[in-house]
C-alpha cells in the first residue's frame, strides 16, 4: 500500500508540472483562440531564466522562482506584441489568422530553441537547490522537492483563480475571452488584455519549468516532452477549460507514475496517451469540456 501511495505522490508532483503548462496553454487558447505550439519552449526558457537568477544573482529559490515568472511573462507579452499580433487583424476585436498562427507557433518554437542553444549550449545544466530533509508521514518519506512542487503549484493556481475572479483585470480578461467584440464595445482595451493573457499563460509555463528544474536537468530540448504531455492533459480535462487543465494534468501524472511503477518505466510516455484515448472514447470533449453545438 505504501508503494502505491509513493507512486501517487510522485505522480501528483509531476502532474502538477503538466497541469501548470496545460493551464497556460488553455488560458491562451480560451483568451486568444491560439493553440500555442511554442509553449514547451516557454517552459524551457523559464527554467533557464530561473537557473541563471538562482546562480548569477545568488537569490534564494523562492525569489528566483517569482522573478523568473515575471521575466518570462514579460517576454511572453513582447512575443505576442512583436510577432503574433502581426498575424491578427483588427475588426472590433481580434480574429486569429488560422493556419498562419499555427505555423508561426512552430517557427517560434525553433527560434526559441536556437536562442537558448546559443546562450546556454546543448549540455544539460544542474539546478542544485537545497530543499532540506525529507518529510516523514507515518511510514512514508516524502522528498522535499515533491512537497515544494505541489505546494508552489497550488499557490500559483490559487493566485490565478483570485486574479481571474476577484480583480477588475481578471474580469476584463474573461470578458475578452468570452467575446472580443462585446468587450471592445464595452470600453475594454482588448489588445492590452490579449497581451496580459498571453503573458500570464507564459508565466505559468515558466513556473512549471523552474519547479521541475531541481529534479531534472535544465536543457534546451526539455520542452518537447512536457508540451506533448500538457496537450494530452488539456484534452483529457477539456481543451480550453482551466479546471479541466488542472484535472487533466494531475490525472496524466498519476497514470504515468502508476504505469511506470506497476508495468514498465520504458513505456511511461505511452500511458498518458492511453488515458487520452480512453477519455475521448467516453467523452470526446474531455472530462470537463463542453460539447460545441453547431447552429444552422
Described by strand count, sense and barrel closure, the largest sheet is:
2 strands, antiparallel
Distance between the termini: 54 Å
Report the count of strand segments: 4
Number of domains: 1
Helix content: over 70%
How would you write the strand order of the largest sheet? Answer: 1-2
Structural class: mainly alpha
The CATH topology label is ABC transporter involved in vitamin B12 uptake, BtuC
Reading the helices and strands in chain order gives: HHHEEHEEHHHHHHH
Proportion of residues in β-strands? under 5%
What's the architecture in CATH terms?
A: Orthogonal Bundle
Radius of gyration: 19 Å
Quick one: CATH class? Mainly Alpha
Spans with pLDDT under 50 lasting ≥5 residues?
Answer: 90-96
Structure notes:
It is built from eleven helices and four strands; from the N terminus they run αααββαββααααααα. A two-stranded antiparallel ribbon has the order 1-2. A two-stranded antiparallel sheet has the order 3-4. With 296 residues, it is mainly α. Strand 3 and strand 4 (140-142) form a beta hairpin. It has a single domain (2-125, 138-282), classed as ABC transporter involved in vitamin B12 uptake, BtuC (Orthogonal Bundle). It has helices at 2-32, 39-56, 61-82, 98-120, 144-166, 168-178, 180-185, 190-212, 222-237, 242-262, 268-282, and strands spanning 88-90, 94-96, 135-137, 140-142. The longest helix has 31 residues, at 2-32. Helices cover 71% and strands 4% of the residues.
